[in-house]
Specification:
This protein has two domains: 68 residues, Ubiquitin-like (UB roll) (Roll); 63 residues. The protein is built from five helices and seven strands; from the N terminus they run αββαββββαααβ. Strands 1, 2, 3, 4 and 5 form a five-stranded mixed beta sheet that branches. A two-stranded parallel sheet has the order 6-7. A hairpin with a 2-residue loop joins strand 4 and strand 5. The radius of gyration is 25 Å and the shape is elongated.
Length: 171
């Protein structure tokens, strides 16, 4: 019986050691390494510079959004009290209009090329975007958005965002 107990304990310890060798969360990392883990987040909407921002793990969402440049109209949502983690891929910053929170519109929304009026936007704005998309394809960044909006750019560019799948850097 003692021998059976010793064998079971030995097998249990052996299995635990083998499992530890297979699953080692710090494998390939020096535990004393002071380099912080970083994450890249796509920030868009009512910000000055839409695009990718790389921050250290644990950085607040507010600080991440600030790196993209807040506008006077920018509204930071409640969930921005969270911190950046590996699962956070995108932050869309909305805007204030006359004291109410408004949601940014995808500049390449299917509504735009269909010339469907969008609440809160002059018809001229949607027409300009539709014409630009018809001539050039999808709007890829804020520079193109402002170009498409022409004289309306200053008053309306922050009301739109470029979806991550459409985004290209503004070189």
């Amino acid at each position: 019986m003692k021998r059976l107990c010793a064998t079971v304990i030995f097998l249990f310890v052996l299995c635990a050691l083998l499992a530890g060798c297979v699953y080692m969360p710090y494998r390939g990392r020096n535990i004393d390494d002071n380099s912080a883990e970083t994450f890249t987040v796509y920030v868009c909407g009512a910000v000055e510079c839409e695009g990718y921002v790389t921050v250290e793990a644990g950085t607040s969402c507010v600080d991440t959004v600030k790196l993209a440049g807040l506008l006077p109209q920018s509204i930071l949502s409640v969930y921005y009290t969270d911190t950046v983690t590996e699962s956070l891929k995108e932050l869309v910053v909305n805007y204030a209009d006359g004291g109410k929170i408004c949601y940014c519109i995808n500049a390449n929304s299917p509504l735009i090329p269909l010339h469907i009026p969008i609440d809160g936007l002059p018809t001229e704005v949607t027409e300009l975007l539709a014409d630009y998309i018809d001539r050039n394809g999808a709007i890829r960044n804020k520079r193109q958005l402002k170009s498409a909006l022409g004289e309306y750019a200053e008053d309306y560019h922050y009301r739109f965002f470029i979806a991550e799948q459409d985004y290209e850097t503004d070189n």
